[in-house]
């Protein structure tokens, strides 16, 4: 289920963003069983750019201020002479749109816990490391983090820090843990904070269920079928030729010395 | 004791007064007057201490053939490594990886390089160590050196200094170049075998100066001193100029006083000598040339592919740089989250060209995976292991001498599979240089029952062919089974045990005929002629008898082995030659007048004797053609019969000589003798000509007695081996220093020549002095001969006609000149066999070069002696015959085998396998690296060309070094299309190599295309499956690491399954490596995922937590693997089904055990599989059968014509 944002704001040069609340209505075409996953999707956003990917310090995420070498995080390494935690461009550009969902007038509960990998929470982002001196620079990037919550609980950040493979990507936002019935009308109220206009990127909101194979993936099925079909086709062709023009195994007439010289 | 007796005997000997004339002419007696450059060496005899200080300090006797020493190893070996362009590239990449330009971490660039280079260097070090050990073996040999006061001590060779007096005992090598002072013989002669130097096996006589003869016991060296002034070290083996100052007299020295290092003292109890040249100054070391480093064609072609890949690398780097520049200039300013420009200026939209340049370097490093870093090292490892197989092949192990085959350089293994022309030495290579007296014809009656090797082999072959013929006549004959078995046995008997079965009990004597043995000859009708025959055998020679103290049997040191065999034969017939002087044989006394060494030009040898009744005889033996020319009218009684026998002998591959005699009157003899003595004592250049003329006068009007046939004992299995090699489509050239007749005989013996073959002999005509420009005339004449012969070959219609080209060394000097060599080569290529006789070592090398460069095909030279070294080094592959004493050829060779017959297995089995293995291996290497490298490139297009790689550095590091290298190494080591027996049974399979079926551009590009396809499939399937949708039931989205890991898994599976499809021979090792590699990948992920290091790259618990629980991950792997291998599978199925190569069919026959079910078919195929050879005994038998059939057909048609005309 996709929903395009319409253009709501314009940007003044660069980074200063006018925040706008807007609402959108989604029509649920068929029954969606819980859990329903909420994703935001960004297009034309190069999370896989080398400058971007490298711009982080995993040791800092684990050791906090004890880790001093932030050279990889430049230019988001120090602010006012103090280290930025978490440093680097990835953290700095954290996605900061927020969504709330209403069925009728009741706000639906969105579970935003457990959206990151467990190992990330347990081993990579430390419980003792708190965001410090974050988004205090002259340039404001994406989201601000609550300095009282340790990094291991900042799941939005953890999800965001897993950089995507392609410039079009989805990130998990949360889960709706109740079934949506067919013809339900869901109203989405969103805070459009994140700037995608400068690079003509688009944002999308995706509601999706998931099976044992993951999300809705037509391609996998098609690929499997086409590979299978081509196998059958090749097998058929070989069979046909074999029936028409069989070559017994170990037939000695095929040995090069038994070839009748063509030229005579 | 023993020594004393020999000495006593020799003292009475008069031999040396004839054999080696003292320096005759008086003007030579004067000391040489020389000074200045080139003649500066001064040796203080018996005062080695004088040579410890600078002006007289000469190099030590330590020799070293190693490439490196401890200090130079590191810099030199590293330099060698980085001369390879690929390694240099990786070194640059590794250096750059320390800067922020690099897309990878430094360790992931440096570690594989260090591993690869380290491995190659370790191999170098190991090889050098082996050389060092070999050197030390020589250096530590003990020599008996004079210390002081007449005491001799043992010292290692390396400690020997110039000026030392050494004592060398019988059968020991000379430790350095020595001046001979005295020997166990009273007159200071000694016999020397110089096989290691020039490959000649006959003994040479050296003679001490008369003045030093008294120095013949250890005591006498107490006060010995003298000064030698002589030439500086130089490589000329046959010259030496120097003076010896001794007791205030100056004596001139010449080469006959010089004993060269690495030659061997023979027939002499001991000698004393002074060291003149040590170590590298010695002539033999000066002669040694650095063996040129050879590279196989496949490797050269591989270099080309690497250049192609480099071009591709630069090309895609440029593409991505351009993409990067465009992105940086136009898009990057809008991507606020990147905060460009950065400090380093790598992403500066203001200066896109600068950033673009940096990016180009980044890209060049990033796509470096296109160049297989481990290719060289893998090939080296594979070749070392292949060489190990060659070294340990029990079928190439010579049980008699205990020598295995030895691959001395491992980098030519695959070249063995592509040989086109074999250039072979004769003596010691094809033959064992041992003659067996086998047959003789006396007074027109042939004696000798035993058949020669050639006859035996041909007879067996013939019997088999005849059977086949009759079977073919009656189709589907059912009596095949019992037949076949016996035949197969027969065949194996021929090839393997032939030599053992009929080894003559007495060396040099293979004669079997009771009519002559045990004195029975006396009862034969022509006993008087026989007596003469045996006398000629026992008298007419130049050999030295030597009594074996234990057995009491005489052995003979003859100049040539044929002579030795005559003497052994005479001994066995009861004419024992035991002393050189009054050549006393059992019955009569003789009076030798003169004898002389057999001269090639004269091709005969004569002795004049007076028998017990006072009758004077001239006994003569020589080449049949010459003797027949000189027969008197009444001496031709037996000519017809003898000629017939001689032809038979020649056909049986025997060396023949004719024997004749003549009765002389007393007056005539004395008149002639006077003239002869006059000629002998004359001085000046025409002395030889005069002698020749005088001798010629006497050797006329001879009476024929008979002929001898000696088997120049071929090495075991040589005819069979040549036959097989010919069937494998190889051309064989024989280059020999021997006379033309001998060479032709051997040609017959090993079936390179046969009756009915048209022999084209190209010789130099005798130039008349009248012609203005004799050289030009000769050249024109030769050119004429060549053109005529070429014309003749062209006009020949009969497809079975075979030509043999025989050319001598003198003619070769002309034909090898630039303006004629191509005509010569053209002619030679048109001939089935080529025999070059009387060629010098240099000419051998030149001929080799001509063939190599003229035909552009791969040449293999095989030889055993020092005279073959040039040829061995010049050829693409040099093979040395080891096991004999001469090591020179082996040292220069790339492969050493103990017997010529092992060449068959070396080429047809190992060569064939190695060629295919290496070819497939290289193709696969390029395939897998293209498949992997291109995925990195595709990803760039989706990552803004920023130089980010989708894979974790560690994956890439492991890709080449661990994850995909072991299976391909196992392919390179163990792959075999058919087993060794089939290789040998179907020599035509070998032709796949020279035709280069497995490494042509079609195949190479095919594999590259396959790599391209795999990369596309792997990349896009993975990307599209994973990029946006959740891949887990928990709704998680795959991040870059997860996608990269999934993609990498796909590649690992795809390339490893690919190699499994490529292999046709599996043992548990291949399975272990292939499936082990895949298993190792998962194991690695498991372990790596637990390391804290993985935290940095989002790969923490990547397998256990992220990927493994996702069914889609496994599905994708399966899908990718199958999709990637589909085209190759279709291709090989197509090829096998519709366009099978020979080995495919044979594999199927073997697999369905058709060869056991249908033995007749199997044997018929084996027979048909022979390359249409025109040489070898199979061809000989074929020719004979054709001949017989032709006759039969004629008869038949005549008969038909007479009866009823039929169609």
Describe the protein in words:
The complex is a heterodimer of chains A (264) and B (1207). Chain A contains 6 helices and 11 strands. Helices cover 21% and strands 20% of the residues of chain A. Chain A has one domain. Chain A has a 5-stranded antiparallel beta sheet. The termini of chain A are far apart. Chain A has 264 residues and is α+β, with helices and mostly antiparallel strands. In chain A, 35% of the residues are buried. In chain A, a hairpin with a 2-residue loop joins strand 4 and strand 5. The N terminus of chain A is likely disordered. Chain B has a 9-stranded mixed beta sheet with strand order 14-30-29-28-15-24-27-26-25, sandwiched between helices. A 6-stranded antiparallel beta sheet of chain B has the order 3-2-4-13-5-11, with no helix packed on it. In chain B, strands 17-16-23-22-21-20 form a 6-stranded antiparallel beta sheet, sandwiched between helices. The termini of chain B are far apart. Chain B is globular and about 125 Å long. In chain B, strand 18 and strand 19 form a beta hairpin. In chain B, helix 5 runs parallel beside helix 10. Chain B is an alpha+beta fold and 1207 residues long. Chain B is 48% helix and 14% strand. The interface between A and B is large, with 81 and 81 residues. Chain A: Keywords: Membrane, Transmembrane, Transmembrane helix. Chain A: Belongs to the CDC50/LEM3 family. Chain A: Pfam families: CDC50 (PF03381). Chain A: Its main location: membrane. Chain A: This is ALA-interacting subunit.
């Amino acid at each position: 289920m996709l929903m395009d944002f319409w253009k709501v704001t314009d940007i003044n040069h660069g980074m200063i963003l006018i925040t706008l609340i807007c609402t959108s209505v989604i029509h649920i075409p068929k029954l969606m069983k819980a859990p329903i996953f909420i994703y935001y999707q960004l297009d034309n956003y190069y999370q896989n750019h080398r400058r971007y990917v490298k711009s982080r310090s995993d040791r800092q995420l684990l050791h906090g201020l004890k880790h001093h070498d932030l050279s990889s995080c430049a230019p988001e390494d120090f602010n006012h002479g103090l280290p930025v935690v978490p440093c680097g461009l990835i953290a700095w550009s954290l996605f900061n749109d927020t969504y709330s969902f209403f069925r009728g007038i009741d706000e639906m509960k969105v579970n935003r816990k457990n959206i990151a990998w467990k190992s990330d929470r347990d081993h990579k982002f430390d419980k003792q490391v708190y965001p410090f001196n974050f988004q205090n620079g002259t340039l404001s990037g994406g989201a601000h983090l609550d300095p009282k919550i340790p990094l291991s609980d900042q799941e939005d950040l953890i999800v965001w820090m897993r950089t995507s493979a392609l410039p079009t990507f989805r990130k998990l936002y949360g889960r709706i843990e109740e079934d949506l019935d067919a013809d339900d009308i869901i109203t989405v109220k969103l805070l459009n904070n994140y700037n995608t206009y400068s690079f003509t990127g688009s944002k999308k909101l995706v509601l999706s269920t998931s099976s044992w194979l993951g999300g809705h993936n037509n391609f996998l099925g098609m690929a499997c079928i086409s590979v299978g079909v081509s196998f059958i086709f090749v097998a058929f062709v070989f069979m046909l030729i074999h029936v028409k023009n069989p070559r017994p195994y170990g037939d000695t007439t095929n040995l090069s010395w038994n070839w009748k010289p063509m030229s005579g | 004791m023993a020594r004393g007796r020999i000495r006593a005997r020799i003292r009475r000997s008069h031999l040396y007064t004839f054999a080696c004339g003292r320096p005759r002419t008086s003007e030579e007696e004067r000391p040489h007057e020389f000074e200045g450059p080139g003649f500066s060496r001064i040796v203080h005899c018996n005062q080695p201490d004088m040579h410890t200080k600078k002006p007289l300090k000469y190099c030590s006797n330590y020799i070293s053939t190693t490439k490196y020493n401890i200090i130079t190893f590191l810099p030199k070996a590293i330099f060698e490594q980085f001369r390879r362009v690929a390694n240099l590239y990786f070194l640059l990449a590794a250096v750059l990886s320390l800067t922020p330009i690099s897309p990878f971490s430094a360790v992931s660039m440096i570690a594989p390089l260090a591993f690869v280079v380290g491995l190659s260097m370790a191999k170098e070090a190991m090889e050098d160590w082996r050389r060092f050990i070999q050197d030390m073996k020589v250096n530590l040999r003990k020599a008996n050196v004079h210390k002081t006061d007449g005491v001799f001590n043992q010292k290692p060779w390396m400690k020997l200094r110039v000026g030392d007096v050494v004592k060398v005992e019988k059968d020991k090598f000379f430790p350095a170049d020595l001046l001979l002072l005295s020997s166990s013989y009273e007159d200071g002669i000694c016999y020397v075998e110089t096989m290691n130097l020039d490959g000649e096996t006959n003994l040479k006589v050296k003679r001490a100066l008369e003045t030093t003869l008294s120095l013949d016991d250890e005591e006498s060296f107490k006060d010995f001193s003298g000064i030698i002034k002589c030439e500086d070290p130089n490589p000329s083996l046959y010259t030496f100029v120097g003076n010896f100052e001794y007791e205030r007299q100056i004596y001139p020295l010449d080469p006959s006083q010089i004993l060269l290092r690495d030659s061997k003292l023979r027939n002499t109890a001991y000698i004393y000598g002074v060291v003149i040249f040590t170590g590298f100054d010695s002539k033999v070391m000066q002669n040694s040339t650095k063996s040129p480093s050879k590279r196989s064609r496949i490797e050269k072609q591989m270099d080309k592919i690497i250049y192609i890949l480099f071009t591709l690398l630069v090309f895609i780097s440029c593409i991505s740089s351009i993409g990067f520049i465009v992105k940086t200039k136009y898009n990057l300013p809008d991507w606020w989250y990147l905060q460009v420009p950065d400090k380093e200026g790598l992403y500066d939209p203001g200066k896109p060209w600068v950033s673009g340049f940096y990016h180009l370097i980044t890209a060049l490093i990033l796509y470096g995976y296109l160049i297989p870093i481990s290719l060289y090292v893998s090939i080296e490892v594979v070749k070392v292991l292949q060489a190990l197989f060659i070294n340990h092949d029990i079928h190439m192990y010579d049980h008699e001498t205990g020598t295995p085959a030895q691959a001395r350089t491992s980098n030519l293994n695959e070249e063995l599979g592509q040989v086109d022309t074999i250039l072979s030495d004769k003596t010691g290579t094809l033959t064992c240089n041992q003659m067996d007296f086998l047959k003789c014809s006396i007074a027109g009656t042939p004696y000798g029952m035993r058949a020669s090797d050639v006859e035996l082999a041909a007879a067996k072959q013939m019997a088999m062919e005849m059977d086949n013929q009759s079977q073919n006549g009656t189709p589907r004959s059912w009596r095949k089974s019992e037949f076949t078995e016996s035949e197969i046995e027969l065949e194996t008997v021929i090839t393997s045990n032939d030599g053992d079965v009929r080894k003559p009990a007495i060396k040099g004597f293979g004669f079997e005929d009771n009519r002559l043995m045990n004195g029975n000859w006396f009862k034969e009708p022509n006993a008087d002629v026989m007596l003469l025959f045996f006398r000629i055998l026992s008298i007419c020679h130049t050999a030295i008898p030597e009594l074996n103290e234990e057995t009491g049997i005489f052995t003979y040191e003859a100049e040539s082995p044929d002579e030795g065999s005559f003497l052994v034969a005479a001994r066995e017939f009861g004419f024992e030659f035991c002393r050189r002087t009054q050549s006393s044989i059992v019955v009569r006394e003789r009076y030798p007048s003169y004898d002389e060494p057999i001269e090639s030009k004269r091709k005969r040898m004569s002795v004049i004797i007076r028998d017990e009744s006072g009758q004077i005889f001239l006994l003569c033996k020589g080449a049949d053609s010459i003797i027949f020319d000189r027969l008197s009218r009444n001496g031709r009684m037996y000519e017809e019969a003898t000629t017939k026998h001689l032809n038979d002998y020649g056909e049986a591959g025997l060396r023949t000589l004719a024997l004749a005699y003549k009765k002389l009157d007393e007056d005539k003899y004395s008149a002639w003798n006077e003239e002869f003595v006059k000629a002998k004592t004359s001085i000046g250049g025409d002395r030889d000509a005069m002698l020749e003329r005088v001798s010629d006068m006497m050797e006329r009007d001879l009476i024929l007695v008979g002929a001898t046939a000696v088997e120049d004992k071929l090495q075991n299995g040589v005819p069979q081996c040549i036959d097989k090699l010919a069937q494998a489509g190889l051309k064989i050239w024989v280059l020999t220093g021997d006379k033309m007749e001998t060479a032709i005989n051997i040609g017959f013996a090993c079936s390179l020549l046969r009756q009915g073959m048209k022999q084209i002999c190209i010789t130099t005509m005798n130039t008349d002095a009248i012609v203005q420009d004799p050289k030009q005339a000769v050249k024109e004449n030769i050119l004429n001969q060549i053109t005529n012969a070429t014309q003749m070959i062209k006009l020949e219609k009969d497809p079975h006609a075979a030509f043999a080209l025989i050319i001598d060394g003198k003619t070769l000097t002309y034909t090898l000149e630039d303006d004629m060599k191509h005509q010569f080569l053209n002619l030679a290529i048109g001939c089935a066999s080529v025999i070059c006789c009387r060629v010098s070592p240099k000419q051998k090398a030149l001929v080799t070069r001509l063939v190599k460069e003229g035909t552009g095909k791969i040449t293999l030279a095989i030889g055993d002696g020092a005279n073959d070294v040039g040829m061995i080094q010049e050829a693409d592959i040099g093979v040395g015959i080891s096991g004999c004493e001469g090591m020179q050829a082996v040292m220069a060779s790339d492969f050493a085998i103990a017997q010529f017959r092992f060449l068959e297995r070396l080429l047809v089995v190992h060569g064939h396998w190695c060629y295919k293995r290496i070819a497939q291996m290289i193709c696969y290497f390029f395939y897998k690296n293209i498949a992997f490298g291109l995925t990195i490139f595709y990803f760039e297009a989706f990552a803004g060309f920023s130089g980010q790689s989708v894979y974790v550095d560690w994956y890439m590091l492991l890709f080449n070094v661990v994850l995909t290298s072991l299976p391909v190494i196992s392919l390179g080591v163990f792959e075999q299309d058919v087993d060794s027996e089939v290789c040998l049974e179907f020599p035509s399979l070998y032709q796949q190599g020279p035709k280069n079926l497995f490494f042509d551009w079609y195949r190479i590009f095919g594999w590259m295309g396959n790599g391209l396809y795999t990369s596309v499939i792997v990349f896009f399937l993975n990307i599209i499956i994973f990029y946006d949708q959740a891949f887990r039931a928990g709704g998680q989205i795959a991040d870059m690491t997860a996608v990269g890991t999934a993609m990498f898994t796909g590649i690992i599976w795809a390339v490893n399954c690919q190699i499994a499809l490529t292999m046709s021979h599996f043992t548990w090792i291949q399975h272990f490596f292939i499936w082990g590699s895949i298993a190792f990948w998962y194991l690695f992920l498991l372990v790596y995922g637990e390391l804290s290091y993985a935290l940095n790259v989002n790969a923490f618990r990547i397998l256990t937590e992220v990927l493994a629980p996702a069914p889609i991950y496994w599905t994708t792997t399966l899908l990718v693997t199958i999709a990637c291998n589909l085209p190759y599978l279709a291709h090989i199925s197509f090829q096998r089904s519709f366009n099978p190569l020979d080995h495919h069919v044979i594999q199927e026959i073997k697999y369905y055990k058709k060869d056991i079910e249908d033995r007749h078919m199997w044997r018929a195929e084996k027979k048909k599989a022979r390359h249409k050879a025109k040489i070898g005994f199979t061809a000989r038998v074929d020719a004979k059968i054709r001949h017989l059939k032709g006759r039969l057909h004629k008869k038949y048609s005549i008969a038909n014509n007479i009866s009823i005309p039929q169609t």
